[in-house]
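[SOLVED] Need 3D model of a two-part complex

Original post:
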Amino acid sequence: MSSTAVLQAQKDEYDILREWMKAREFIYVGREVKRIDALEKVLGKSKYVEDHLVEGLTYARIVKSSIPHGIIQSIKPGRAVDHPDFIALVTSEDVPGLNQVGYYIPDQPALAERKVRFYGEPVALIVASKTRSAEELRELVEVEIKPLEAVFDPFEALKDRVLVHEEHGSNIVLRTRVRKGDAAKALQESDYVVENVYRAGHQDHAYLETEGALAIPMDGGMTLILPCQYPHLAQSIISRVLGVPQSKIRIIQPVVGGGFGGKDDMIPIVGAQAAIAAYKVRRPVLLTYTREDSFTSHCKRDPAYIRYRSGANKDGRLTVVDVDIIFDAGAYANRGPFTLWRATAHSTGPYEVPNVDARGTLVYTNKIYQGSFRGFGNPQIQFAAERQMDELAEKIGLDPVEFRLKNILRPGSRTSTNQLLEDSVGVGEALARVAEKCDWREKRRNYGKIVDGKARGIGVACAWHGISTSRGVPDWCNAYINVGKDGGVVIYTGIVEIGQGSHTGLIQIAAEVLGIPPEKINLVGGTSDAPDTGATHGSRGLSFGGTAILIAASKIRKSVQRVASRILECSPEDIEMKDGWVYSRSKPEKKITWEEAVKRCYAEGEEMTATGYFFMPKGRFDEEKGQGFAYIVFSYMVVAAEVEVDVETGLTRVLKVWPAICAGKIINPKLATTQINGAIMQGIGYTLMEEVKIEDGRILNPNFTDYLVPTIADLPEIEEPIFVEDYFKFGPFGAKGLAEMALIPIPAAIANAIKNAVGVGPLEIPYTSEKLFENLSRRGRR
Amino acid sequence: MIPKVEYYRFKALDDALRFLRQYPGSKILAGGTDLVVQLRSGKTAARKLVDISGIDELRYIRDEDGYIRIGALTTIEELKNSETVRDHAQLLWKAANNFAVWQIRNIATIGGNICNASPAADTVPPLIVLNARLRLQNVDRQREIKVEEFFKGPGETVMEKDEILTEIVIPKKDSGWRYSFIKLGKRHSHILSIVNVAVGLKTYKDMIEDVIVALGSVAPTPVRARSVEDYLKNHRITRTRLEEASQQVVKDIKPISDIRASAEYRIEMSKILVRRALNECLKNVFTT
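Solution:
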């Protein structure tokens, strides 16, 4: 169906969205409504997956490969069987359905079968009657693997001498391409061309709660307590491995201790593993990953190698971007085809570039596989793109902000894929306001001098980020609302609360439309009992999840207005709903309570349930031409970062960050600010210290002693964010996505600030103190 | 996984010592912040644990007869909160202030930090500079040993298998001494040192009368930088002298490359940190 046809079919829904977009006065939306889960969390009463104890519970641990590449000869329980707490050893032979958990490419088993492809790959599960015993017994399992030659370096892997998946015939998973104009010609004709090679390393999600799943065989199927990010995806993967219909798999969401994308990928897999074990032992199984298991065996942000050439003319206009991107997928493709596509499509940064040639290659290696992580392939490429903008500006002799503003995307611009951006493009305003707020010109003039062995610098970076899924991948949202006879409202949504606060924001949206206080609304989220709402990823939870709730709530509102208009003897259009009252706008003394109105709806045959299905009208991307529709909308982010570099040790401290975000209507500024602050911290870790050290495929630092995340002592001063509310026509009240945004430009902003401070421009992240020290030594600037 | 161990807990020092004499293969558990991690990762083979954390007679900070006496089971947090330590063992107090996190400081003990014999232990270079002595005891006798003679290598000390470290003895020095402790890690707190440096220094007019320099994490044991000390002692203080003295440190250290830093980086950082520590001691004294 074409996007026009979709719009036609959803005319009512579109009208609803347009009507609410006009609203400028709000009661709940745009307010700092307190998180609904705050008190329970503070009191330690929240129930995470491990807190759900059920009768007859058994405990499972993964048994891992200590060989990066090899043929499985045998897996035997060994002396484990003699232990009184031993219940079962579960291997690929116990999988009742299909041993396949690959996301896009069917290349990944739930438990290794025939081959292992990375060090730490789960080959079996040990099930015991106590956690401690499971931990002890897994050491006794005898796993015999015949080692094969392994390949760790993606460039070596490209030679296809050693194949990670021989049935695939090559280590190249796939290639991506975006083309526009004539890049080769433009490179020759541009006044200035800059070329650099950029590198980015792995990043671990380091969530407080590691992976876990509780599988309970019941009602002729399986119920799972699952801290996932997309219950219906987990449902379909688990149904596949068990070989039972999806209708027999029920997913319930516990409180989740952090997701960041990692649990989008991992929990369906861990849930499948738990379900296989529960199927075999016919008892509930709690499978949890220890912190070390989480480090060794859960997906990471994809390492990237980016050769970037870009050009501009003397007038300061960008002419061309020509880029090669290699993503190291590790042992399994997982989300690699999508992170790489996103990187390819976003390779220009948020700028108008007439000539683009971006080529991506996804490569298998015998290492931990890649996965979803806040930014999803985009932080790597925005690092390159925005470092490159500073290098180009320097070459032309322009101020970096001025250079960016000359080329920035505006309403009416066309993107790298030639997609027309009609509206909702606030990045130019965001950049100008950040520059003003941080006193950009003054600081750029004065910084870069060494005083007492220290040098200050300031840098800026922008980012754009397509919200939700790319290209023509079908995208929809839905919600179900049920109003009880007493006026109490229950919302069912597939959107998951992973710490970001979406459920609070979603309740605010419903409260605004129904004109009742948030306390009257209960929200059941993250469950397969709710309509399929798509995943809580791609910064779509509050925006797309909210669109569905807005539509469903508007349908209820219309029913109430119809009945109330009869009681109050006025037209339905004249009925206003606010603060729990239903009244006539023209004669406000004519009013009834919300409860009374609901009661009358029940009495007079008005339906008090509604769904809010909305199908996103997307276009098509032509893979052959490398042109077309990329994303339904983009959010934008600008950050300025100020650093202080100790020029003798290379230790960099981020002193201050000025964020600005274009995410349309801000539903809850407090939640937005906390998401921005958290993303900035995660970005600082990614840029300066987080490093997964791998030797012959083995992770050397699977612990928090040596995998360093920033602490409160590394926290910079973060200014209140600037909100540029560039409304999105399919978002609730115009809201777009936000949660990933602030991380994406941080690496380049810090790197550009380091360049400003000491004259050395980082080409790789993490840019540790030792690396900066080496580069400074080489430059002789110490 | 933590392997199966036999666990013994004692409330009296004598009982613990008798047990150690009888079972010399035992491992002493004080705070456990290092030992439990080592058990889990298989880095220690001990299967008999002697928990001495309940021996209250080894938990004290006393100021008597010109000495600061610290019971080996005193926690790092107690050092941090002690005015006696702050006033008379300032270097140790500085190290305690930069030590790990609150939760760790609350159970980690000074004795454990020393006996674990990590080359990166943050309390040790300060104790070397303070000329601290360690009191070791077994069922028969007590002996005292200079802290810098205590270490043999990573995780190895001269302590006998039946001995317990009971006390750290720090002689009070005259008020002419100035001190500096600097620690470099890969982030700004909660971090194992890449290099740590402690310096104590005493001037007479524009001369350096006495100086002690010790470093951690740059050799198999914490080390004293005698080359630096010799280069400075009885010399006039000049910027050049300090700079040259700092360069001498390479003769005293033997760092390795590991997951935290390369040997080359550690060498360069040692020179820089020694110079900074010396300068900090001379702040307000040195004006040329």
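Edit: Residues 186 and 194 of chain B are 8 Å apart (CA to CA).
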